[in-house]
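ARCHIVE CARD
Drawer: 12
Card no.: 0347
Subject: one protein chain, sequence and derived structure
Cross-reference: see card 0346
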Amino acid sequence: GAGGCGKSRVTEAISAFMCFHNRLHTLRSLAPSSAAAVGINGLTMQSMLREGRRKSNTNTILTQSEIVTIENEWRNIDYCLIDEISMVGCYMLARFHKITTIAKHTEPSIPFGGINMIFLGDFVQYGPVLDRPLYSNLLSTQDTLEYTLNLTKQPAKQRNVTERVIQCKDDYKMLCKRVVSPENEVKSLREAPWNSATILVFRNEVRTNINNYCVFDQSKKNNYLPMIVVANDRVRNVEIDNIDLRRFLLSIPDNKTEGLPGYLPIVPNMPVLITHNIATELHISNGSIGRLIRLVIEDGENLRLDNIGDPKFPNNTVYM
């Protein structure tokens, strides 16, 4: 149904009905995005597909331990609700069918292992990313990039866009006012509301430096000592004794280490974005925003923090 028709109310009613009859444990609520999953108090479909974050092989064979985990996760599930079905593609739904078939020990010809499926969404909204929409014709020979580009080459629309660009001097002036300058509306990024605005950059190094600057600036304002969490790199589970090698590994940009930085500056109450959640049972999805309250270090972690300081950080920085 279209937006505002009451899909969320239906989801709440189903959950309330199951809870009233003590059957809530037989219902699983899923969504293809973290925001949608949080909205229905559910999980992301990706967390159920048993695939790595950077999975490249689509024919991965599940191990016996993974199969046992899948069976336990779906043992009591008789109903599955998927919200925002428009964002689910053919390939994702096929993988989901494979998982449920394995979990319920059924033949592949039985859809979703016999689980009762409830699909909610609006196909006019966002489509799947890098996947075919569920309503696409799989046998169509015209569903190609070249065919799509030809459809978009409409001279009339192109002329309208060109004329719009010529006439949008006012829009251009408005955008110029957003440039940080004493003469413009945005005089400094230290002032509200610009000090909490999202900043888009073209290079990861610039993003990292801006984040570090903001953390140290916030630490100074709140009279905290600058704190940095240092990565504990190992080679074949053996600590690195060569200080030069360790410094080199810590200095590698995080875009080359799967998003894991060597130095991570932190400050209490700093905003954080969950990118890899290992506690899905808490219903915290990837993409959720939170605040850093405290840092818990496991017992027995003896990190060697000697000679790992970086001159670009303040002299009174505490490394941990």
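Annotation on reverse: The chain has nine helices and eleven strands. The chain has a mean pLDDT of 80.
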